[in-house]
Description:
Residues 222-324 form the HTH araC/xylS-type domain. This protein is of the alpha+beta class. Helix content is 41%, strand content 22%.
Amino acid sequence: MRRPPAPERRDCTTGDPEALAAFLASVYGTRLTARAPDPAARPYRVSCVAAPTAVAGELELPGTLGFAAGPASLLVVSTLLAGRVTVAEGHEEHRFGPGHTFLSGRLGRPRTARTQDAAVESLAVPWAAVQAAAGRAEAGAHRAVRFTGLAPLDDSRAGMWRRTAEFVRRSLFAGGPPWSPLILAEAGRLLAATALAVFPNDTVTATGDGPGGSDATSDTLRRAVAFIENNADRDIGLAEIAGSVPVTPRALQYAFARHAGTTPLTYLRRVRLAEVHAELRAADPAGPVTVTEVAARWGFAHAGRFAAAYRSAYGATPSQTLRHPGGD
């Protein structure tokens, strides 16, 4: 498996709005200009970690700033920690205050924004990941996912996004290197799928994808299981598994629910957990292998959740298996 580029930490501290805009444009891949009616009392500060699958950012924007941006190349979700933000697209204007989570931009839509003493946390994913999560990876521009609003559907879904964002930040970006390619890929997929569940969009169930759909068969399950078991070491997700059958992602989910009582990604994690177990059993207890290293290689980022899942599956901790490979 070709190793993707490692995440890059980037920082910018400047009192110049144009320099700030240039930095943000380089991070988020969009045309961007910024203007300030008056000099800010403090410098603007941006800190981010950019990977091919996701970008995490923290922004401090004192004073008043006006932005004009071209169509976004990433889906950017922001949570406002302090201050005010107004986003305008065409004739629509959206105002956000502290605690609000919102889309900073949508595919194909230029926009303007005004910030006032804003502190923002953002997470962004490529549009290709959103397309894949919606089962439209091979679709043309006319079938691109269209978000119909900038705010979450309701408060509970806004909370879902914040919990997901906190998990990604703590388990992935806050920890620093070394980064596992599988963990990086899963972070992007998780964020894309969560965005589709949280924000209003035109994703619809295709004919035949419902609980009684003709593709949700035991043969669909069998083909998908074989693909997962043969490719668990690769960067695969729901779209790739569905494409191997081939059926739509929704039909695949129904097949697993109906015939296996689980989900495709839960089954994938189960297979990867079994691979971790096998590696720990085969390792020399006195050798250089560590539980953390093996877990990360198979895509497990959160040590506590991994240890709990492992103990539930095998009745022992990962370190016990490593120390006593024949005794678990």
